[in-house]
């Protein structure tokens, strides 16, 4: 017989992460990333090969290379044939062939850079932040990898989810703020045949966006304008705007960006915001908390508040999507 009164709010009933499984997946992720960096995935894309052939072509040691290939075979992306040669599976080809719509090579390159930041987490927590403002300059090859990694991430369920959870019926022209490769514009234009979109991003992103949009056959409906979306004229003629993963907290100038979008849209204009957001109780979701550790993330009520403060009304959290993102909408008052 229980002789004490329970309090529901004192019981943490959430599922906890499996620390052992996290350790396993860290090792798998690192093996996949290193294999990409060394060119092993790229070598297997050419044809099946023995571990010795892979090692010779990638300039690695044969024995540890075979052990690595054995691990990769356990992921289902590689298959060890009865003759001892390794080849990519159908899923492996879809993942590592640049001609595939599910290509993930740039995503892997970007994740490898993120892994370096996580390796330095102890130093990050102990070292005072450096003085100065603004994002560091990206060399062209790093910029390309970052932009196309956004395509790799969005195409794997995120853009489809967003297009299925907003209503753009009757809307004609979308401003995609910081839209990068244009994957979300593509998905929304596919879902709404009367819609056209303009991606506004740094000038160097333009050729990457144009090439990516062309692969989906939407070059005539998805355009690009180059500039700094914090300072340059965003243009006119839009009746809806998307701010996807460009509002990571007040320190990112998010309030000012939302005010600029408010000034660009007409009465009745629709704002769509998608970003990593943490629950109001501060306990997750895990993906948003991970992103927030290094970059920053609003809580749900904070995001709603900053959108309302910028002049939008009927601001609503429409749902939680893949990878810890929240989807919000708001309207310009009539």
Question: How would you explain this protein's 3D organization?
Answer:
The protein is of the alpha/beta class and 334 residues long. The chain has two domains: 19-100, Orthogonal Bundle (Arc Repressor Mutant, subunit A); 157-331, 3-Layer(aba) Sandwich (Rossmann fold). The protein has 13 helices and ten strands. It has helices at 19-38, 40-46, 51-58, 62-74, 90-96, 105-119, 121-126, 140-163, 183-191, 206-215, 254-264, 286-294, 300-309; strands spanning 78-80, 86-88, 173-177, 196-201, 222-226, 240-244, 270-278, 298-299, 313-320, 325-331. The strands form two sheets. Strands 3, 4, 5, 6, 7, 8, 9 and 10 form an eight-stranded mixed sheet that branches. Helix 1 (19-38) crosses helix 6 (105-119). The radius of gyration is 23 Å and the shape is globular. It starts with 18 loop residues before the first helix and ends with a strand.
Q: Regions with pLDDT < 50 over 5+ consecutive residues?
A: none
Number of strands: 10
- CATH class descriptor of the largest domain: Alpha Beta
Question: What string, H for helix and E for strand, traces the elements in order?
Answer: HHHHEEHHHHEHEHEEHEHEHEE
CATH architecture label name of the largest domain:
3-Layer(aba) Sandwich
The overall pLDDT average reads 91
Largest sheet: 8 strands, mixed
